[in-house]
Amino acid sequence: MTFNPTAGSSSPSTRVLIVDDHELARAGLAAVLACEPGIEVVGEADNGAAALDFVARHPVDLVMMDLQMPVIDGIEATRRIKALHPAIGIIMVTVQAKPDALMEALRAGVAGYLLKDASRREIIGAVRQVLRGEAFLNPDLVLQTLRRLAHATPTDDATPIEPLTPREQQVLRLLMQGKTNREIARELIISPGTVKVHVEHIIAKLGVSDRTQAAVRALELGLVRDKGRD
């Protein structure tokens, strides 16, 4: 097991744990994040069980989590971490470019989903976005998921939801593309503050706790479709 908490360093504003069963993958992510001010990799783990042990013993703000690992995989580790430490943000970093994997990760509680071929800019962007409390989802993978669900029957749910307004539907679509509030504001030509209010209304209407879970709920209910199919 690899379990290497950083020793003797000052406490950074953002403490990151990297979890992956491949040493080179951990080293690559650590090298990318090491160049960013205000971010420090405080530990590494090579499976989900080691990750759970680490967050129980050391303060962590963000976990970069692999999906497929021995002992405890990334999905189960995410569920357990979020249950015990809901404030910790988790970004799944994986080779699994499949809609089913994305949905499972979102249901487990991840705030971001990155593919392992992501560029340095995408990785840093995802980290910064999640730290702001916004979701980061791979746009191509979200599009694949929407296209698949366009052919599926929406989830049958006995709990009715309050209908979304046309503007809320627009905001939800862009939110699910991984866009930030500022990016949504620019596209819809409204203020970021107005976007924030719309997001809060969407979360309340869908009966979820955050924007990532709003995306999951919208996918399950078939509220958002691929734009090309509208």
Main sheet summary: 6 strands, parallel
Strand content: 5-15%
For the record, the count of structural domains works out to: 2
Low-confidence stretches: 1-12, 226-230
CATH T-level fold name of the largest domain:
Rossmann fold
On the 0-100 scale, what is the average pLDDT? 84
Secondary-structure arrangement, i.e. CATH architecture of the largest domain: 3-Layer(aba) Sandwich
Rg (C-alpha, Å): 18 Å
Residues in helix, %: 40-55%
- Mind telling me the CATH class of the largest domain? Alpha Beta
Report the principal-axis shape.
Answer: globular
- Structural class by sheet pairing and helices: alpha/beta
InterPro entries: CheY-like_superfamily, NreC/VraR/RcsB-like_REC, Sig_transdc_resp-reg_receiver, Tscrpt_reg_LuxR_C, WalR-like
GO molecular function: DNA binding
Protein name: Two component transcriptional regulator, LuxR family
Keywords: DNA-binding, Phosphoprotein
